[in-house]
Amino acid sequence: MAGRGAFSSKIGFILAGAGSAIGLGAIWRFPYMTGQNGGAVFVLVFLACCFLIGVPVMIAEITLGRHTQRNPVGTFNLLHGGPLWKAVGALCVLSGFMIFSWYSVIAGWVVGYLWETARGTFNTVQSAEHVGEFFAAYVSHAPTVLFLHFVIIAATAGIVLRGVKEGIEALSKWLMPVLFVLLILLAIRAVTLPGAGAGLEFYLKPDFSKFSAKMLLAAMGQALFSLSIGMGTMLTYGSYLSKKEDIPGAAAWITFFEILISLIAGFAVLPAVSAMGQSFTDGPRLIFVVLPSIFALMPGGYLFGVGFYVLVIIAVLTSTVSILEVPVAYLVDERRWSRRSATLMVSAVSFVLGIPAGLSFGANDFLTRMDFFTIVSTAFGDISLSIGCLFVALFLGWVWGVRKGVAEIEAGGTRFRLAPLWSFLLRYVAPISILIVFANVIIALLR
């Protein structure tokens, strides 16, 4: 289809997919979700969700996208056309809109922190409390927050306008390994800080008394969010993939990189939380309070801090372009819009939708009191992704059919030896697990 584009190689697809996963979901959201949900027990449940739900659904999404060469709405319309499945495709596109709108707010904070680090704001940090006070003032200043929100939206739009190969793939190819190395160095420094032992124990020693339905939903939502599934991202990326590529192998590599970076990010942040005397339950502010405190203590911390935030911005952009691509692909495929018109329209709407989230950290009392950001991120970062994954699993597993899925996976000559296991996980484990979690959450709310 004209205007769609395609990945030029398997490695380009894997790095783009990994880049989609290795953004704020791994570096920012995973550490604070772990802190809020019981530490090591959350990590174990997160890993189980990645392997038992995430990987099977990722393979399904990529397979559906490659088979149809369409976006989520186009895929379900082409393969079924029923109103339920049209609604599932529409939910994927809506989730892309909403997640992009609030994700870009947090990404804007990273841009702001790069600027503040470069100008030496954190060079004379006396304590983590000092950084915490700075952070609270920074994110409550509406003009700054909304300007940075716009910067991320504009930068993402600029990349998506260049298309799949020249924009998305080119961005992903070179800088992810450097981020990986810097994150390892940061983790080494964090675990060697005086007082880091409590954080390591919290991160590595499970306390099963903290296990709950709410924590299970959070772990599942984190797995799906960080793997970029349930909102049509991998389905859309799969639609740009050549028939000769190995879908299960690509999914395995993407998952491996995402899990590895998430775990390293946990080592970089949580031990430092205890070393800096902060609370593990502080949530989204952790990475913006703890890391500048670490940089202030490190030899060469100024250069390390600038380099880290530059590369986190790159990781952020590889995620935001994947999220923006979903609604853009819908408008290109289904509405016959040009890529330029689709990108500009979606970006403009996402900027407007993100304004309430941007104002909910002190800039607007009403939005702050109702915790608007948490409501939106839970609705579209946990619940909608879980619903999307549930219906993708049901569709390929029971409606379109596993046999057709396996035939598409093997279309390029690759034999899918784990097809029986994949079929079992996709048809039974993934949907039943998601339904059990939702049932427990609803029961807990009704009590």
Task: Describe the model.
With about 450 residues, the protein is mostly helical. It has a single domain (about 10-445), classed as Hydantoin permease (Orthogonal Bundle). Helix content is about 80%, strand content about 0%. It contains 18 helices and no strands. Helix 2 packs antiparallel against helix 10 (about 215-225), helix 7 packs across helix 8 and helix 8 packs parallel to helix 12 (about 245-275). The longest helix has about 40 residues, at about 370-410. The N and C termini lie far apart (about 50 Å).
Biggest β-sheet description: none
Strand tally is: 0
Q: At CATH's second level, what is the architecture?
A: Orthogonal Bundle
Average pLDDT number: 86
- Counting H and I runs of at least 4 residues, what is the number of helices? 18
SSE string = HHHHHHHHHHHHHHHHHH
Structural class by sheet pairing and helices:
mainly alpha
Low-confidence stretches: none
**Rg measurement, Å:** 21 Å
Q: Mind telling me the CATH superfamily name?
A: Hydantoin permease
The CATH class? Mainly Alpha
Helix share of residues? over 70%
CATH topology: Hydantoin permease
Shape verdict: globular
Number of domains: 1
